[in-house]
Amino acid sequence: MDTDGHIPRNWHLKHIWKPALTAAGITRRIRMHDLRHTHASWLLAGRADIQTVRERLGHSSLRATERYLHTLAASDEHALKAFERVRNHRHLRTD
């Protein structure tokens, strides 16, 4: 394949993506975007910084990355726990 470094989508699907799904025994339709969305969601669920996720996805603004925040069912709980950790840490100080 003669290319400028860019792998054509159809070539990638036929020679890389579909054989990989077959080898893994995956029969349901999975798009590359599904993997991208999962990657972002898992990073955020693991408490990765949203700015870091934005950079990994190549988004020019945080607004584009914010759409992945809806997947964080426990985000309120995480926020409250973070607040509690800071609050408790402050009470432990002997200034």
In terms of quaternary structure, what is this?
single chain
Per DSSP, the total helix count is 5
Q: Provide the low-confidence segments as ranges.
A: none
- The coarse overall form would be elongated
* Helix percentage range: 55-70%
- The averaged pLDDT comes out at 79
Sketch the topology as an H/E string, one letter per element.
HHHHH
How far is the first residue's CA from the last residue's CA? 68 Å
Strand segment count: 0
Organism: Kibdelosporangium philippinense
Protein name: Tyrosine-type recombinase/integrase
Pfam family, one: Phage_integrase
InterPro entries: DNA_brk_join_enz, Integrase-like_cat_sf, Integrase_catalytic
Plain-language structure description:
- With about 100 residues, the protein is an all-alpha fold.
- It has a domain of about 60 residues.
- The chain has five helices and no strands.
- It is elongated, with a radius of gyration of 20 Å.
- It starts with 8 loop residues before the first helix and ends with a helix.
- The model has no long low-confidence stretch (mean pLDDT about 80).
- It comes from Kibdelosporangium philippinense.
- Keywords: DNA recombination.
